[in-house]
Predict the structure.
Amino acid sequence: MFYQFKNENINNISRITVNKDGTKLAIVAEVSPRELAQEQLEGYNKRDIDAFLKAYAKNVKVYTYPNKLSYEGIDEMRKRYAPMLKKTKDLHCKITNRIVKGNVVIDEELVTANGRKFKALAIYERINGKISIVRFVR
């Protein structure tokens, strides 16, 4: 019998094993795109650069929608985000709508920074268990 997981948090199973008694099953799978998007959001809202970057691939590519490359690499992302996270004390992002389809997460965001509020749209793509592509719609 074949079982199909309906839980979106179980993605790209790479290994399955059974204990010697045959009573327990262990599964190794990738973190879901939803969890990765949430992880980076929580790091952002805590203004914790390491927690924020943990969800991203080392060679992450950040685009202005649809395909204008803004920058590439986690080191460049750190350079851009670390000062903002450190100095913007009221920085906060609230998700007003989140759509998950396969390896893609689309977040509608309401961002607060320096006493101002603005809307943003971010598209995150998971590849090999990390956010590897980000597209910001301006």
Notes: The helical segments are 33-46, 49-53, 74-87. The CA atoms of residues 99 and 106 lie 5 Å apart. The radius of gyration is 17 Å.
